[in-house]
Design a protein that fits this description.
This protein has 230 residues and is α/β, with parallel strands linked by helices. The chain is 29% helix and 27% strand. The longest helix has 15 residues. The mean pLDDT is 97. The protein binds ribulose-5-phosphate.
């Protein structure tokens, strides 16, 4: 495992300390979240945790969790998720995030909005002074509106690119939508960018997560750090 993978693993493992017996747990998507999911399964198997149900944030995570034998349930109306553990692509000092590198931003945001606690796990390379400095913003768009929304994003600035799958065909989300990766550049005010995108009917969801993270667990060369909003 590379040094970066070790840091991701350390963050993922530590995040499982937030889970208690009897909890409903939201499972994020991505390589760092998967370290947490593996650890969760390990603690259930060795008896440290029991009576755990999980809501996956993507088909990828669902498949992964199923292979580990986790109990998966649908998101219901009666019970909020106790803790969601998810990754991020960029994290700013105000705990705002860019997510959606894995294309699961829509379901991830639904979980985040329906969780009592949102624990974000990442290696230290994800920390950034300003969102947009190292990662384009994923924007989920439905087919009818692709060209119109590309034009809208370009009118705000930066460059757009339709995300492609490995075989060169357009990448499709779990909802069958498309992703436009928008390289806007550094954002002075991520909230106002989020507001602009939320107004657009053709944009299903975007990867700016404003004020949803309650805890950030960072795997760093100096050890695992737990950050909470100040
Ligand atoms: C998926 C996400 C992921 O959490 C994000 O891309 C981080 O992934 P990784 O842990 O593999 O770096 O938002 O939609």
């Amino acid at each position: 495992m590379s040094g970066k993978e070790e840091l991701k693993k350390a963050a993922g493992v530590r995040a499982v300390d937030f889970v208690r017996t009897g909890m409903l747990v939201g499972l994020g998507t991505g390589s760092t979240a998967e370290f947490a999911i593996e650890e969760l399964s390990k603690r259930i198997k060795d008896g440290r945790l029991s009576d755990i149900s999980c809501v996956p944030s993507s088909e990828r995570t669902k498949d992964f969790a199923q292979t580990l034998g986790l109990d998966l349930v649908e998101l219901g109306s009666q019970r909020k998720i106790d803790v969601t553990i998810d990754g991020a692509d960029e994290i700013d000092p105000d705990f705002n995030l860019i997510k959606g590198g894995g294309g699961a931003l829509l379901r991830e945001k639904v979980l985040a909005q329906n969780s009592q606690r949102n624990v974000i796990v990442a290696d230290e390379s994800k920390l950034s002074k300003r969102l947009g400095s190292s990662f384009p913003l994923p924007v989920e768009v439905f087919e009818f509106a692709i060209e119109a929304e590309k034009g809208y994003l370009e009118s705000l600035g930066g460059k757009v690119r339709l995300r492609l799958a490995r075989d060169g065909s357009p990448f499709l989300t779990d909802q069958g939508n498309f992703i436009i990766d928008w390289s806007f550049g550094e954002m002075d005010d991520p909230s106002s960018v989020a507001d602009c995108l939320s107004e657009r009917a053709g944009i299903v969801e975007h990867g700016l997560f404003i004020g949803t993270a309650s805890d950030i667990i960072i795997g760093s060369a100096l050890g695992v750090k737990h950050l909470v909003p100040g």
